[in-house]
Design brief:
Keywords: Membrane, Transmembrane, Transmembrane helix. This is GGDEF domain-containing protein. 61% of the residues lie in helices and 12% in strands. The protein is an alpha+beta fold. It has two domains: 114 residues, no CATH class; 153 residues, Reverse transcriptase/Diguanylate cyclase domain (Alpha-Beta Plaits, 2-Layer Sandwich). Strand 1 and strand 2 form a beta hairpin. Helix 2 packs parallel to helix 4. The chain is elongated, with a radius of gyration of 34 Å. It starts with 9 loop residues before the first helix and ends with a helix.
């Protein structure tokens, strides 16, 4: 039976590295206390060299220092313990190389963390499935259009489209559901007016911002959109399953504009009304 070999984490590697340094200096102190300080200095220099010198230059430096170390050890003769000779020979190449490898892992970890932060920031602003802006972007956009309200302009209308049974279909193929959401997004982008902006909430809700349009015009568009969305479905256990949608709209009061959270609350209350109407039908 094959076992997967797990590599040491960066933290464990650094901890073992420090323990090994302490072990080497302690061993040298037992063997020859007069060489303890020189060995410690060599270790520190090798660590600094490994951390701050480019790898190619480090390879040449380690090679040169190794040859110099061999010549030095040969000239010492029998005056120094054999173990100490070996340590003098390998300490600089070993610790310089290990320091370089640890630096590479630290830089790699830093790159991964920065990439993850960048991805999270992008995900906050744009849904990766529907390729539409998210709630964070809508909040900023709402604040912008509210500050630009004018009495001479027609009202701004927000439309919420929700898939109320989305959570009940989590057992279905996730990739298929993602494709359905992507298809809904494509349909909305294609069929709605170019002046309207589409945002995605939590994968199962879409909000459309209609600028400079009358509420009746938006309602007529919503009726047409509801019919068009009926053409989107997903397959489960070999059967065709249609999606069910809820619609809610709200016109923004230019005289007394609500804050963003209050607008969302009103939209969700209107959504409950649409659900009641659906059951009555």
């Amino acid at each position: 039976m094959k076992h997967k070999i797990r590599s040491l984490t960066l933290e464990v590697t650094i901890l073992l590295f420090i323990v090994f340094i302490l072990a080497i200096t302690t061993l040298v102190g037992f063997l020859d206390k007069y060489l303890m300080i020189p060995i410690t200095v060599i270790i520190l220099i090798s660590i600094i060299t490994g951390f701050f010198i480019d790898r190619i230059i480090l390879v040449w430096l380690v090679t040169i220092v190794t040859f110099i170390g061999i010549a030095f050890v040969l000239n010492i003769g029998s005056q120094v313990n054999g173990i100490v000779k070996t340590l003098l020979l390998v300490i600089f190449p070993f610790f310089a190389t290990m320091s370089s490898l640890i630096r590479i892992r630290i830089l790699s970890r830093s790159t991964l963390i920065n990439n993850r932060k960048l991805i999270l920031r992008k995900m906050e602003k744009k849904n990766l499935i529907t390729k539409t802006p998210t709630q964070v972007s809508l909040r900023k956009y709402y604040d912008k259009i509210v500050t630009q309200f004018s009495d001479s302009e027609q009202l701004v209308v927000l439309t919420l489209i929700s898939l109320p049974y989305y959570e009940q279909r989590e057992y279905a193929d996730q990739n298929q559901l993602f494709k359905v959401l992507s298809d809904i997004s494509v349909l909305l982008k294609d069929k709605r007016l170019p002046s309207e902006r589409i945002f995605t909430f939590d994968n199962n809700e879409f909000i459309i911002v209609s600028l400079r349009m009358e509420e009746d015009e938006v309602n007529a568009l919503n009726v047409e959109t509801r019919k068009q969305l009926n053409d989107i479905y997903f397959m489960l256990n070999g059967k065709k399953h249609e999606l069910r949608y809820q619609f809610a709209s709200i016109k923004l009061d230019q005289q007394h504009p609500l804050n963003f959270d209050d607008v969302l609350k009103k939209l969700y209350r209107n959504l409950e009304t649409d659900l009641i109407d659906e059951y009555l039908l």
